[in-house]
Design brief:
It is a single chain. The chain has 302 residues and is α+β, with helices and mostly antiparallel strands. It has three domains: 82 residues, Rossmann fold, CATH 3.40.50; 142 residues, 2-Layer Sandwich (D-amino Acid Aminotransferase, Chain A, domain 1); 58 residues, Dna Ligase, domain 1, CATH 3.30.1490. The protein is 31% helix and 24% strand. It contains nine helices and twelve strands. It has a five-stranded antiparallel beta sheet. Helix 1 crosses helix 9. The two termini are 26 Å apart.
């Protein structure tokens, strides 16, 4: 008999709906693969629910805070339930954009100049020269990201402030949106993302018809190979396991054929019908069910 897998879904973050969509697709695949499947919509009683269900493996389909920041991973470690995706430390590091950038830079990857600023430095004024990007430093899926350009009349005020006391402010990098999925120790492929309007924000990521995915990305071979290696370097430097997806800007206005800047690494990439990682895996010859099976069979503690 195949193993009993519990799919952890929903949760308490702003990415709850994305998680529910991922979990739905994952559960269908697990059932088709012959696993015994249970689901938990994760709340404060998750430990009691896990103790009651007694799964062999937890498939972590959570997104955002508490689900991919090391919190649920720590609980699963305590309960001795093997789980998919990255461990406690790698999950926490990937979710903390400040620490992740330090690790990427130390590994030799290009990162945008940036810093953490208190909201008092942003209300009615610019903390750095425009254009720049404002983002929460511990959320995923481009939640809360705001771009401020030279000719914008927009300034933050108490009335439109949607963050906590502090946010990350980064230099805006022009260029093309590039993403790379890594599975285990192998980069799978490169996709270019072309939002039909604006940038690749939460709406453009999860609304059908809002973005075009070009897989494989139309890049010179040397640049394609370069960004594949950069994604593997990021995956390894953070200490990820299972699947990750790294997002880059390709500034092709630079000399020497362009320059890649890593924006972030997602250690818990989405598995929705519009998600990039399954699409890239499929391009590499790994269909959705096989991808889910690889992740389940690679589940472990530590």
């Amino acid at each position: 008999m195949k193993k009993h897998v519990v799919v952890l879904k929903g949760g308490m973050s702003v990415e709850r709906e994305v998680s529910l969509s991922s979990a739905k697709a994952i559960s269908v695949a697990l059932n088709q693969l012959g696993y015994r499947v249970s689901e938990i919509d994760v709340g404060h009683d998750v430990a009691a629910r896990l103790a009651e269900i007694k799964p062999d493996i937890a498939f972590n389909a959570l997104h955002g805070r508490f689900g991919e920041d090391g919190s649920i991973q720590g609980l699963l470690e305590i309960m001795q339930i093997p789980y998919t995706h990255s461990g406690v430390l790698a999950s926490a590091l990937a979710m903390d954009k400040v620490m992740a950038k330090k690790i990427f830079a130390a590994a030799g990857l290009n990162v945008a100049e940036g810093k953490i600023v208190h909201k008092s430095e942003l209300l009615g004024k610019d903390p750095i020269a425009r254009p720049y990007v404002v983002k929460p430093y511990n959320e995923g899926s481009s939640v809360g990201v705001k771009l401020l350009f030279e000719n914008d009349n927009f300034f933050f005020s108490e009335e439109n402030w949607e963050y906590g006391d502090s946010v990350m402010v980064e230099q805006y990098i022009p260029g093309r949106e590039i993403t790379v999925a890594v599975l285990g120790d192998k980069p799978l492929g490169v996709t270019e993302i072309k939002p039909l309007a604006g940038f690749f924000d939460y709406t453009n990521k999860y609304t059908a018809g809002k973005s075009e995915h070009i897989c494989p990305a139309d890049l010179p071979k040397d640049k394609y190979d370069e960004v594949m290696q950069a994604a593997l370097t990021a995956h390894t430097a953070i200490g990820c396991r299972g699947i990750s997806r790294s997002d880059f800007r390709y500034d092709d206005t630079c000399q020497n054929g362009g320059k890649f800047y890593i924006l972030e690494l997602n250690s818990q990439p989405g598995m929705t019908p519009l998600s990039l990682s399954p699409e890239i895996a499929n391009y590499a010859g790994i269909d959705f069910n096989r991808l889910i099976e690889i992740l389940v069979e690679g589940a472990r503690l530590g």
